[in-house]
């Protein structure tokens, strides 16, 4: 059974940092491309950043460039999202997404709130 579990969401002040994690099971992690999406209240879910099975990274969200970084630990079946210089507009539920040979899978999300 496929399972993706995000963690690390929290309330943080503007300018702060957070590191989100997504632990996965139920598929061969090394063959999966991993993505982070986010969805702010009243807005559509948007793709933030991705990392391929070979470690190639692409930042889709312009506002994330230079602030967000993605990494993967294939030994631990985990992908991380490091977020720095957080802004109130980064407030959203952040979702982990796996693209595997057998299909696409989602986690349940973790809440990030940036507020003073």
What's the arrangement of secondary structure elements?
Blueprint: E1 3-7, E2 11-12, E3 18-25, E4 33-39, E5 46-51, E6 57-59, E7 68-73, E8 78-83, E9 92-100, E10 103-106, E11 110-114
Parallel strand pairs: 2-11
Antiparallel strand pairs: 1-3, 3-8, 4-5, 4-9, 5-6, 7-8, 9-10, 9-11
What's the count of strands?
A: 11
Indicate the multimeric state.
single chain
Count of alpha and pi helical runs: 0
The portion of residues forming beta strands comes to over 45%
State the shape.
globular
Q: Radius of gyration from the CA trace?
A: 13 Å
**Low-pLDDT regions:** none
Distance between the termini: 40 Å
Average pLDDT metric: 97
- Relative helix content: under 10%
Order of helices and strands: EEEEEEEEEEE
The class by helix and strand makeup works out as mainly beta
Main sheet summary: 7 strands, mixed
Please outline what is shown here.
By secondary structure, this protein is an all-beta fold. Helices cover 0% and strands 53% of the residues.
Would you kindly provide a written description of the structure presented here, covering whatever features stand out?
With about 120 residues, this protein is mainly beta. It is built from no helices and 11 strands. The chain starts with a strand and ends with a strand. The mean pLDDT is about 95.
Structure characteristics:
single chain, 116 residues, mainly beta, 7-stranded mixed sheet, 4-stranded antiparallel sheet, globular
